[in-house]
Amino acid sequence: MDAFEQTVRRYLALLATGTTAEIIDCFAPGATVEDPAGGPVLTGPAELEKLYGSLEGRRRATDLHWLRVGGPSAVFGFTLSAGAHEIDVVEVMTFDTEAKITSMRAFWSPDDVVTHSSPTTAAPER
Amino acid sequence: MDAFEQTVRRYLALLATGTTAEIIDCFAPGATVEDPAGGPVLTGPAELEKLYGSLEGRRRATDLHWLRVGGPSAVFGFTLSAGAHEIDVVEVMTFDTEAKITSMRAFWSPDDVVTHSSPTTAAPER
């Protein structure tokens, strides 16, 4: 597994179980993030914390479906489950020589989001 | 269908049935092409003609599997059949304001290529 694939897999694992700081540590300083692609370009710790901090306190999981690496870049498809939502996402990433993420663009639209109604008898979520 | 999706669909149709000149006309002047991503960056008519000209005279087909558009960019997966080869490709494109392609990066590796034995040769399969 090459270093870029390792970063993708680490990033997806941390989206599911990591802290906001651990997720942001996958990114190089000055990295740019578009989530969704075509939306505002986020950069810097404060803007990334706002994006990824929204995951904290929610039950989360990620499931990688496919991954292609070419040059210092990757494109991959995965499902992000967060609370009652499941989002089918395709992300395009570029990396620096230390395999830190220098740019991320997440391709998804409302059509790619499924919302599950919460079962009323379930145990309380965190 | 937005203009960027139209360009992708036109490009895929031309990969199957178009001339080299028609394919190249989908690109903006100065567009860059990496095929595969991580390989040499091609630019200018001569370099694009060399790449796409290799398709001429071969029986070709394309089959779009999925497409995501975000901002002036798109990512999509398709199968390109050319002669005895079938390649499962994921491409990332960016576009100018006229929906001409300004960059294309094709993510595929030898693992994504299937070669069919010619139907006229009943030779044993490897």
TrEMBL record, chains A, B:
Q: Which InterPro entries match?
A: NTF2-like_dom_sf, SnoaL-like
**Domain SnoaL-like span(s) in chain numbering:** 8-103
**Record's protein name:** Nuclear transport factor 2 family protein
Organism encoding this protein? Kineosporia mesophila
